[in-house]
Structures are given as C-alpha cells and as structure tokens.
Backbone:
C-alpha cells in the first residue's frame, strides 16, 4: 500500500483482545492525521481492526496480507 | 467443466471459506447441533472434555487410581472435544487461516494460568460457558443464570487487569513471536486441500470405527461439524461478556443471544414433551438433565473464577479448542493448564469446597418447578431481551466501553 506510515505497532503473536487494546492505546498517543501500521497474526483482527475504526471514527485505510502476517493501516481522525 | 460452472463452485466455496461467518449464524447452527446432541444422549459441554483428557494423562502416568476412567475415544465428551479441535483445524485449513502462531513468553504463561483458573472455576462452579451457560440456560437451570453473573464479574475484573498490565507490565505481551506454516499468497492451495482431505478422513474413520455405536458416531460427527462452525464463525462467549466493557461492539453478545434463544426453545420442547421417555420417572430425569446443584453461591464463585481465567487465556473451554485447532499456541497452553488441573481440582479441591458450603448455597433449581415450562422459558427470554437492550444502548452511548 502506498501510504506514509508514521508509526508501526507490532502485535505479531498476540491474540484477542491484545491487538485491539494495544491499537487503542497507540492511537491515543498519536496526532490527528497520522498513520499507524499494525502488524498482527490473529485472523480475528481482520474484522476487529476495521470494526474498531468504524466504531471510534478513525479511518481504516486498508489491509495487506503476507504469509500469515496482516498489515493494517489506520489513520487517526 | 465450463467457466460458468467453475465460477459457481468457486463462489460457493468462497461463501463458506472465503471469509468469516457472522456470529449469529454460527450461534444458531451451534444451538441446533446442541439440540441434536441432547437428542442423541446429553447436551453440549466443554469442561468434561478436559477432565477426561487429564484423567487419561494421569492414568497413563499411573498417578492416582483412575481405573474407572474411559479412554478418550470411548468417552462421549473426550471424543466430542477432540473432534471439535480437529474440526476447527480443518475449518482453518479450508479458510487458509491456519498457522502455528507462537506468542511471546508472557502470553504463553497467561494461557497456562487462564487454563488453570478455568479448570478450577468449572469444577467448583459446576459448568463452563457451554455446559453451564449455553446449555444451562437451554436446560432452564437457575444456576445457569448465576453462573452468567459470575462470568460477567470475572471477565470485567480480568479486562481491568489486562488494561493495567498493558501500562505497568508491558513486557508480558511483548517479545519474540513466530508464525509458521501460514498459507502464502492467493494461490496457495495446500491448506484447503489438506482441510478437505482431513474432513473426509475423519468422517470415514470415525464412521467406520463407531459402526456399532450410534452415540459415539454421532458425538464424533457432530463434534467435527461444531469445530468447523466455531472456527468459521469465530463464535466466542468470552467476547460476548467482554466486548461491552471493551469496544462496546454488539456482534458477539448478539451471536450468543441467538444461540441461547434457539437452544432454549429446542431444549424446552424436548423436556416438555419428555422425548424418548415412557414413564413419569424417566420424564423427570430428562427434565433435570444439565440442572446442577450449584444455585447460587457455588455457581457465583465458580463462575467468577472461570470468567477470570477465560479472559486471561483469550478463550473459554471450547474457545480454547477451536483456537488451538487454528494453531494459536497460547491456547495450547490454556488447554494444557485446563486438562492437567481439572482432575486435580475435581479430586482434591471440590470435595472439601462442597462440604464447606451450606446446603442452601448449592441447590438444583429447575425454573419450570417455579414458573411452569413456558413461564420458565419466558424468564430466560426476558433476560435475553434485557441483555440486548443494554448491549445496544451501550454500543450507542459507549458508557461502559473502555476503548
């Protein structure tokens, strides 16, 4: 994905609920407009991350998958 | 095969294995299968699996006398749980979601601890989120309501702990992790092929093995299907209790409510009609199926401990099975803790605990004895409606959501 990433959060190996708890905490400490790249391996995150974004009003930019690792891109609103 | 036909098959496959199923769909299917299990012999339960597996381990190691235990493949719940795990493995393969996911060490420790707490909670409280709650409510047991209250309390406390841990002990959830054997790219077919082959093999193997034992044959087949559905829908009772306090999202609670509603209806019909019974005594015994002597303090204590454990582990008794099947190694540790501790708790802790508690704290309460059959079903439906209203209101207002 062609997007400028401001921060990367590595949640590889973590399972529900840790990726979302860490995502919420990380986004809280970022400025509006900044982009976070979240790396995860829990298949549940494929629905959880976009769902959390929609719920909290943050922008879900997209997801890539590479060999079991999911990369989620979130822009803080 | 023409291109249109190939496209149609691909689309059909895609519907089931291309993405996650809605949780309400999983919930309804699981409840229907639970009704089938009840009709075959006895309702769905989770902790019985781990007790049987653990007892087999201790028996194999010749530690304490367990001459009466059944081997896993001869025990209804030992078998059911095994096929659930294998079914989830097959489901994950077919959905190209299997991978060996080894988490940081702190997470594996939490998995183990969670499993131990669940073992303690399920044996003390009599029942887990499936046997005591999903089936317990369907069985019209008052203890099931108290167990749910316990789960809620335990989940809430454990969630507060996880939030605290993230701030104060971040190393618990940080560190090296490994992901092996994942499906690579869009073209990888080894996982779906293996998943189909495994499913066919399991059906044939157990179908033939239990040719002369209808009950075990049905428990094996239903277990396999339950495993596939659990993994495909990511059905999770932990989420149902935890999500309102976390993101406020309502999908998980509603999925569980759907399962409860269908289960309550199906079980009430079976009990009310006395299906398969021909004497009043047998009908009464059927009516009391899955109504445990744990109302009310025993269920509250056990439920709270179980709620703590399942939230820390990241899966309940059955959630542990399907996530273990998906390759999540944290839940392998949860399964290990559960199966090793459950027989110990059952043998050394529960008798003293039950003796210590007064009689009034551990009663069998069958709601139809108080409200009649349909009155009892109505009580549970009212509870579900109240839960729904709360969950939807909380989703809109975010009053109780932490993140």
Residues:
């Amino acid at each position: 994905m062609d997007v400028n990433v401001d921060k990367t959060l590595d949640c590889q190996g973590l399972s529900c609920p840790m990726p979302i708890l860490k995502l919420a905490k990380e986004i809280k400490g970022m400025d509006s407009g900044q982009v976070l790249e979240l790396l995860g391996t829990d298949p549940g995150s494929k629905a959880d991350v976009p769902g959390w974004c929609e719920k909290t009003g943050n922008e879900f930019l997209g997801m890539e998958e590479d060999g079991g690792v999911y990369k989620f891109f979130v822009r803080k609103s | 095969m023409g291109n249109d036909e190939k496209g149609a098959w691909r689309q059909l496959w895609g519907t089931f294995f291309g993405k996650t199923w809605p949780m309400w769909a999983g919930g309804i299917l699981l409840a229907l299968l639970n009704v089938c299990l009840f009709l075959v012999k006895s309702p769905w339960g989770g902790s019985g699996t781990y007790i049987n597996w653990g007892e087999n381990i201790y028996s194999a190691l010749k530690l304490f006398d367990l001459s009466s235990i059944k081997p896993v493949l001869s025990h209804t719940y030992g078998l059911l749980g095994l096929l659930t795990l294998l079914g989830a493995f097959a489901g994950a393969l077919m959905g190209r979601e299997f991978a060996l996911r080894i988490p940081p060490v702190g997470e594996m420790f939490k998995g183990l601890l969670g499993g131990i707490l669940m073992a303690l909670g399920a044996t003390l409280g009599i029942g887990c989120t499936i046997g005591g709650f999903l089936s317990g409510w369907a069985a019209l047991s008052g203890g099931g309501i108290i167990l749910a209250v316990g789960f809620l309390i335990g989940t809430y406390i454990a969630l507060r702990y996880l939030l605290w841990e993230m701030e104060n002990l971040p190393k618990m959830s940080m560190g090296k992790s490994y992901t092996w054997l994942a499906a690579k790219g869009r073209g990888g077919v080894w996982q779906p092929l293996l998943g189909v082959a495994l499913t066919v093999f399991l059906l044939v193997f157990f179908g033939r093995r239990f040719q002369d034992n209808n009950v075990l044959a049905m428990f094996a087949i239903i277990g396999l299907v339950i495993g596939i559905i659990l993994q495909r829908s990511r059905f999770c009772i932990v989420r149902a209790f935890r999500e309102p306090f976390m993101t406020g999202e309502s999908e998980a609670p509603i999925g569980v409510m759907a399962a409860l509603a269908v289960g309550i209806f199906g079980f009430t019909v079976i009990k009310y009609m006395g299906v398969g019974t021909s004497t009043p005594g047998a009908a009464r015994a059927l009516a009391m199926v899955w109504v445990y002597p744990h109302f009310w303090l025993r269920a509250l204590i056990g439920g709270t401990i179980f709620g703590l454990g399942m939230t820390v582990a990241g899966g309940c008794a059955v959630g542990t099975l399907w996530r273990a099947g998906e390759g999540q190694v944290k839940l392998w540790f949860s399964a290990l803790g559960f199966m090793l501790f459950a027989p110990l708790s059952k043998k050394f802790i529960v008798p003293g605990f039950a003796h210590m508690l007064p009689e009034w704290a551990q009663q069998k309460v069958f709601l139809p004895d108080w409200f009649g059959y349909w009155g009892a079903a109505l009580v549970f439906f009212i509870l579900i409606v109240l839960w729904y209203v709360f969950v939807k209101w909380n989703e809109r207002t975010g009053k109780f959501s932490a993140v």
Chain A touches chain B through 25 residues (CB under 8 Å). The CA atoms of residues 9 and 38 of chain A lie 5 Å apart. Chain A has two helices and four strands. The first strand of chain A starts at residue 7 and ends at 11.
